[in-house]
Amino acid sequence: MIHLQNICFEIEKFCDVKLTSSEHVDTRPSRIARDNEDVAKLSQWLSEHNPFPKIDVIMSIASVIVGGNEVNCHLSEEIGRDMIPKMMGKKFENVKFKRKGKVVTLASINSSVKICNISIVVDPHILFHRLCIAKQSDDDLKAFFKCELSPFPILLFTGERMRKGTKSSLYTSFSPITEDVKPEGSQYVVVDGGHLLHKIVATTSHIWSNS
Fold first, then answer.
1. Which of 131, 127, 126, 125 has its CA nearest to residue 144?
2. Best exposed site among 30, 63, 123, 180 by fewest CB in 10 Å?
3. 3-state DSSP call for residue 119?
4. Distance CA 111, CA 119 (A)
């Protein structure tokens, strides 16, 4: 790109024509007006949907999960400062931490399992990778999969929220109708309204009351 710029500059110099402009596309009145409208829309949406509401509990902005009294991740700095004096003047092998001084995050609510009455946050993906590395044979893998490896169904949920479904995969779950259906009354159930509008093509003079 730099070489092309030099070539363009030499051609303009040879032809004694300057085609550069100091006006940028973002400084045009139309672009400025559109940006102001977008800023106004965003400001109005944020005023109606405050992402930082004044509440007395800890809440995740992304998943809206509310933490209980056991969640203390917002006090991690204070907890760390309280633990430093207890480590001063001791050897590393003699340093011991109490369980109540552990920082508990919001991930412990949905992604934790109890092992010997101790809640431990588990990442299912990391756990699966470790099992693949630790296994020596397929028999070991069968033994691993006898237990529940995830605190939530991986096919339905991600680490933060429920997975989005696809209508095409839902369509394959319905068995086709081989015989004519005689509806009772004037009420119908539409599974996918968008698909129905694409399949039924209305004429230009057609009105909705005649459907």
1. 131
2. 180
3. strand
4. 10
Tell me the three state secondary structure of residue 113. strand
Q: 80-98 pLDDT, tens per residue?
A: 888 888 888 888 888 888 8
Give the torsion sign (CA, 115, 120, 121, 126): negative
Instruction: Please give the DSSP secondary-structure letter assigned to residue 163.
Output: P
Say which residue the tokens 């024509």 belong to: 17
Mean pLDDT, residues 129-157 taken together: 72
Same domain, 127 and 115: no
Give the residue among 133, 123, 195 at the shortest CA–CA distance from 166.
195
Q: Which domain holds residue 33?
A: 2-48
For residue 182, tell me if it sits in a domain. no
Quote the DSSP letter at residue 165.
P
Q: Is 147 contained in some domain?
A: yes
Token match 């039924």: residue? 200
Which pTM was predicted? 0.35
